[in-house]
Amino acid sequence: MRKAVIVGAGIGGIAAAIRLAVKGYQVKVLEANDTFGGKMHEFWLEGYRFDAGPSLFTMPQLVDELFTLVGRRAADYFTYTRLDPITHYFWPDGSHLKAYADPEAFAREAWQQLGVPAEAVRQVLAKSARLYQGTADTFLHKSLHRLSTYLSPDVLKALGCLSDLGLTTTMHQANARLFKDPRFVQLLDRFATYNGSDPYQAPGTLNIIPHLEHNIGAFYPKGGMYAIAASLVRLAQELGVTFQYQERAEEILTAEKKVTGVKTGKGHYEADVVVSNMDVVPTYRRLLPGHLAPEKTLQQPRSSSALIYYWGIKKTFPQLHLHNVFFSADYQDEFAHIFQHKSISPDPTVYVNITSKMEPGDAPAGSENWFVMVNVPHHQGQNWPQLVAVTRETVLQKLSRSLGVELAPLLEAEQVLDPLMIESRTASFAGALYGSSSNNRMAAFLRHPNFSAAIKGLYFCGGSVHPGGGIPLCLLSARIVGELVPGPEGAEKSKHHA
Description:
CATH class of the largest domain: Alpha Beta
CATH architecture of the largest domain: 3-Layer(bba) Sandwich
Strand order of the largest sheet: 8-7-16-17-18-15-19
Structural class: alpha/beta
CATH topology of the largest domain: FAD/NAD(P)-binding domain
């Protein structure tokens, strides 16, 4: 039986392990940490449970299909519910809006709360759906680095959408042309943060993102986001995949331009196929000494990072939902701080995720578990202890003012995660959550491909390579790898270097 080694047990690595096991490989997953999930892990703090990383679940069908692939029912492993409303938005002027799951209800709410014409909301969501459906099969579901992708009939659909894709305008410019209300423009611009980008630089193409949330829907998995990773690990183990924790990969071994295995501090593991789920920068810098690195790709501008406060709050807030966003007064200045000044705005947008709204057991009775996140620059030598302390006070004051309650006395548990910690715990270079940013129109094509053109048998998945970061795209990267890796019986006939 041919062997595959996966470096990293993030969501992309777990999904790739399942797909290769289905293809007949004997699969081993090496993980430096003491558990699986990568950024998607959980912890308990003084009676409060927290999902440490990703908090939004969209495109659940990409998880479901991994179970279907092996004839299992996803519902036997984990279940999820569709959210309604999805997010509760708050602005500094006191206005607020509930983003309902139903597009019609969302359009009606935008009119009633902000005076935004309902028909314009319907049109922008319909356009987002049309563009996604026309381009996803080409630009997200397939490798952009194979000739066969461009010979597919799907390309004709994508070409038909080019004039509406917004390649020559920024995301903000495209939204500002459609809506006069700056609050609703800000709401649409926020979707740039879903891949760590700046709506004032990123192309209007990113306006396909709202389709995932407002047309397909947002969901909550029972047991929290960690339940997604846990269910997939269970499936992988049932397929014979082995997970080895606290075993850091030290080198991807090669001979005659072909992978031969992976070296760790505990031994050497032979492999016909190696898939790196590690950030592509440390993959080359640490694991492939002696091999030329694709410097132009590795030196692309990095995405934003996150500063997260995990707070146990001794009070319940009926006006809040699972997902809540408290906007800044000047969005453009906020992104200028992140991407130009490499700092944090004195008035940041604050995201508050409260899973105890869905699962009361995640917090003690009469309390709530708050995951409080601010978008920040990736690490570039900043004084993070100082930024963490200053931003903490800013956030407490902002939320206290908006909610009409002094929050500081209500805190009974607290933990912090900053970009340096993200880098050290997940090997995300400079703490950038999504690898490179999408702040230019060619960003999608500049991401590292899912295979190596120089080393046969070496593949890549996860948020730092094509098609990008976030749970859905990481799962798609694993699907692409699964399609690229040849079946054991035809391994020598691989065409993936086309």
